[in-house]
Amino acid sequence: xxxxxxxxxxxxxxxxxxxxxxxxxxxxxxxxxxxxxxxxxxxxxxxxxxxxxxxxxxxxxxxxxxxxxxxxxxxxxxxxxxxxxxxxxxxxxxxxxxxxxxxxxxxxxxxxxxxxxxxxxxxxxxx
Length: 127
Description:
Blueprint: E1 5-8, E2 13-18, E3 35-38, E4 43-48, E5 57-67, H1 78-88, E6 94-97, E7 102-107, H2 111-120, E8 124-126
Helix pairs in contact: 1-2
């Protein structure tokens, strides 16, 4: 399995669920991390927890590990090399991919277990 370097992003993040026809709200924007994913059933917004207004359905308390990319689309096993040790350690995740790299969200309460599992698998962690 490939070994990668992961950067722990500062701050707490949230996953929000909005109605499928809603526009991506301005409060969702962030230079650190933000994303909007629309399906026919929902608009999912990923952003800093501090940005989420009262009344929005969300789950906060997530931390983000960014894989140091970029990775070519022809490279295989990159994300699996990170997710496999997390699954073995019982760490819940949300994975988000961009053109250049991947981001793995872990619950803040499981962050220490996640970092230990990743280090044991040979990955480097930058804080």
